[in-house]
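Dear colleagues,

As part of the handover before I leave the project, I'm documenting each prediction I ran so the next person doesn't have to rerun anything. This entry is a single chain, and its sequence is reproduced below.
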Amino acid sequence: MHDYKLFNSLLQNTLTQLAYAKHRQLLLITGEQNWCYQQANELLNQLNNPHVKVLSSSPDLTNSVWPEHTHQILGQEFQHVIYDGFSGLVPDKFAALSGTVQAGGLFILLLPELNELHHWCDPALTAFQSFETQQQYSYFNQRFARLLCNDLLLHLSQQTGWQQSPNTSQLAGKIDLTEQQYCIDQIVKTATGRANRPLLISADRGRGKSASLGLAAAKLTGKKILICSQQFNALHSCFKHFAIERELTYRAQNKQLANLHYVAPDQLLNELPECDVLLVDEAAAIPVPLLIKMLAHYPRIVFASTIIGYEGNGRGYTLKFKHYLEHHYKNMRSVTLEQPIRFAANDPLEQHICNLLALDADHQSIVLNTNPLHFSELNAQNLAKNEVLLRQVIGLLALAHYQTSVNDLRHLLDATRQRIFVCQQQNCIIAVCLIAIEGGLPVDISAQIVSGKRRPQGHLMAQTLAQLSIDADVLTKLSARVVRIAVAPSEHSKGIGSQLISHCEQQLASTCHWFGASFGANATLLKFWQNAGFDLLKLGFAKDKATAEHAALMVKPLTDDDLLINDLAAHFQSDFALQLLEHFSQLDQQLVEQILNGCAQESVDNKLDQRLTALLATDYQLFAIKPLLWRALWRTPNSFFNCDENTKYLIIRLILQNWSPKKVQIVFQISGKKSLDKLFKQAVNNWYEQYSLKKLP
């Protein structure tokens, strides 16, 4: 080791200063892999601390682990941690591990020499690239190296030895608990005060959000408390502080302690257990529709989430969910924790991580002026060098989408055959559209994909089109899929997203056969894509865990002679009519209506029309007219677009989704079978007026 005595002396001095300042710091060790491992193992011996976490896929590092999922890291605390960059720079893991470091601790990062990162073969790189289009260089790593060179951090280099260490705060670190105490008081107030006054807690990592839940729960000795989170591991801090306050023994596997009980989100909503107050931690990782269902059943509820999240982005969640709460619960309260309590303010490690991973990239509200809008394409290589522009893109994407991860930054910079289109006014980005170019695969690989033998990474839409059409030739051609599109919230509903899509289409038409998008289906998004000329070709059978929505694939052809999309859209319509009777019987009524809006109109079957007209003149029963209505509705799906909402609801639920009359009575709060019959017949009459106008000769 270079100047080991000097290094050891400086390190011990730094650790003393960090402990005094209650700060954490990044220690960078760079060089050849074996050399870095030797230094790390020696450092582990010198630190002589059992509370050290080592993230590495190599057995050459003492007590190393390489967890598959980020949640396996969260909810823990360590005095020091080591991240082995030679195992791959995975931003999600990197960020999550940094959140576990205690005050006075080190985040030790092992990497090649920084001037080698530009051409270093990072083992994680292939995970961010498409099959058959992999490259050996990483713009993410190039940016990473540049920022590390400019950061003031502890650095031990095999080539140059110990670098000048940064100035560590000479002041005693102070932990300000004022905000946390206020938060605890608000939680207790929510649990003991008037019903239907939900509390929303937002905080960055290290601000004591989970600890506040545990400390508040400890004060509610006479209450039955349920605490809900997607991952139980994220609740260790909550249970630990609860146990300390109550003077109880807590083991990490315990999911119940005194009157505090853990319950998973799906179990909570399936069983609806009774409680006096419901605490929901890391709420940003739970789909908003599920949070709304919790609100409907539990009158006293606290939602807490991380603003800069590793499980799901908190900014988009906070904006959307807070808007819902304010609209439906006028007495809701919100608390934002800004002061850290696990370490002192101005923590060096937090600043390094935020800078390296752009975690603090935030969208700034904008007001358009009279200057023209400019549509253009950004280059990932240039984006990696332009920090201002990069942060605008990241900030807008993080704000506009429900769930993002830290890995998205690396996807943005390193995904091969990805194109980035933006709408700008002067130097301000208003909208972003990320597009993945798919297909162009060899004939033999394409045949294996269609037969179900292979499913290579990065060709989601192309594979789906080929499998739906059972045509391997589709995979040999290029297609373009919208990965994400985001428009500044202040500019929503002004047609900017549609203009950006149109611009993308023009740029792609010369090289791609098809243009599509895959997203969590809801009526609003479906309408947007329908208005842009896209056809719905597939609706996933399973709900997405993140959004609680079915994935929709919508595509439009970019060549005039293409018949594939029309054929697949017709196949989807005929299949969906039957799937709606059973598998999609619980699908949102407004989504069903919007799907029908894109379905093709057929010519009227005269015999069917005559039978329907004759039966409507009698005192018919639901079971007698149901088959005729079902066939007539699917031949003329546009026949009830102008009907009132009650008519649409009853016809979709009773006829198209085959709900039982009893179920409709319960959901629609209709008292008695006679009342339902009367409402149903009125709905049929309302529909028939439109049907008579809409049916084709």
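Residues 673-694 form the longest helix (22 residues). The two ends are 88 Å apart (CA to CA).

All the best with the project,
I.
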